[in-house]
């Protein structure tokens, strides 16, 4: 399977997550579309194909655990997102099975009713409430537990927050506000960035040279939408971009024909759904969002993958605009950067 074919498969699975609503008909846990694993199976799979793990801790007597199975984990869009981004583990917190995890053996030494398993106690740090979801990274390190019943609309931003590594950048409360502003806010806010087409930006560079910031987005990408509506549309970010760049927002599924540097780029829509310009700039690494920086001569400076909240995007924009990338590492630049975004 080629890299593009693999990305096509990933694209089709991800788009299902966007197309289904969270009010879809639920299924019983027996017919759940999630392939639930044991924790040993998930650990073994991580050795050859690392992926984050979500563990659903439940008990036989937990009523809300059953409701969550029926209404949340059986929701098609939630199940598809989990299956695409995680290894999903069902863990009976009161099992009497002997379990080996990370080369250590665990048992349930309790003698009475409702005695917790030693591994559950260790992973949940003794906070035994059900249901509880536990997120592990690709190296089996604990990221965070999330206790309590979650409806589909409540669990969605949590899954994205951990699954797409947003937790490494900002607190969940901040990301959740961006998520809600993007998908739940009924207020229609105007576009603050003056977006150009790619060809318009290239043409403007011949008359009044500036760098180009090119936001490559996919409409099926949740983080692309959040970044467009809350990062690029932040007043300070928009002001700085409009003054210092020619900004371009380019749909990687576009059917438009683009002329660039004596080449013609189209979307053949054969082996994959992506536009040739995006494939060329990203060298086939088709994950979104990504931001491409071009110099005033229209030559590539850098491709920066991933989601960035406003305060991080601001730093990156200054880093390339000021040509600091020529002499300074970004991490060093970031330490001394003075933000104009109010705290």
Overall description:
There is one protein chain. By secondary structure, this protein is an alpha+beta fold. The protein has two domains: 3-163, Glutaredoxin (3-Layer(aba) Sandwich); 198-336, Glutaredoxin, CATH 3.40.30. 39% of the residues lie in helices and 18% in strands. It contains 13 helices and twelve strands. A four-stranded mixed sheet has the order 2-1-5-6. A hairpin with a 5-residue loop joins β11 (290-294) and β12. α4 packs parallel to α6. The radius of gyration is 23 Å and the shape is elongated.
Structural Rg: 23 Å
- CATH topology of the largest domain: the name is Glutaredoxin
- Gap between N and C termini: 47 Å
Largest sheet: 4 strands, mixed
Q: Please count the helical segments.
A: 13
Low-confidence stretches: 12-29
User: By helix and strand content, what is the structural category?
Assistant: alpha+beta
In the CATH hierarchy, the architecture of the largest domain is 3-Layer(aba) Sandwich
- The tally of strands reads 12
Strand content: 15-25%
Helicity level: 25-40%
| Mean residue pLDDT | 91
Shape: elongated
């Amino acid at each position: 399977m080629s890299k593009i074919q693999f990305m096509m498969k990933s694209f089709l699975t991800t788009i299902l997550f966007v197309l289904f609503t969270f009010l879809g008909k639920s299924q019983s846990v027996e017919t759940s579309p999630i392939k639930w694993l044991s924790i040993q199976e998930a650990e073994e799979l991580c050795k050859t194909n690392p992926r984050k793990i979500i563990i659903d801790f439940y008990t036989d007597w937990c009523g809300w655990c059953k409701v969550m199975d029926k209404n949340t984990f059986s929701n098609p869009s939630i199940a598809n997102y989990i299956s695409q981004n995680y290894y999903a583990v069902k863990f009976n917190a009161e099992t009497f099975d002997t379990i080996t995890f990370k080369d250590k053996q665990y048992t349930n030494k309790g003698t009475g009713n409702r005695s917790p398993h030693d591994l559950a106690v260790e992973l949940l740090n003794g906070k035994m409430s059900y249901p509880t979801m536990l997120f592990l990274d690709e190296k089996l390190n604990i990221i965070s537990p999330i206790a309590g019943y979650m409806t589909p609309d409540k669990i969605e931003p949590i899954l994205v927050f951990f699954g797409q590594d947003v937790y490494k950048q900002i607190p969940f409360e901040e990301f959740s506000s961006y998520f809600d502003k993007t998908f739940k806010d009924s207020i229609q806010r105007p576009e603050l960035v003056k977006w150009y087409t790619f060809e318009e930006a290239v043409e403007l560079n011949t008359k009044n040279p500036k760098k180009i910031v090119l936001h490559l987005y996919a409409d099926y990408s949740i983080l692309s939408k959040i970044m467009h509506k809350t990062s690029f549309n932040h007043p300070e970010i928009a002001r700085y971009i409009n003054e210092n760049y020619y900004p371009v927002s380019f749909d990687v599924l576009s059917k438009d024909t683009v002329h660039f540097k004596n080449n013609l780029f189209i979307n053949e829509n054969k082996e994959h759904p992506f536009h040739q310009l995006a494939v060329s700039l990203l060298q086939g690494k088709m994950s979104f969002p990504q931001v491409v920086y071009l110099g005033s001569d229209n030559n590539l400076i850098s491709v920066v993958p991933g989601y960035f909240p406003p305060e991080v995007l601001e730093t990156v924009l200054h880093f390339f605009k000021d040509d600091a990338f020529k002499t300074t590492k970004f991490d060093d630049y970031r330490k001394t950067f003075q933000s104009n975004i109010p705290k």
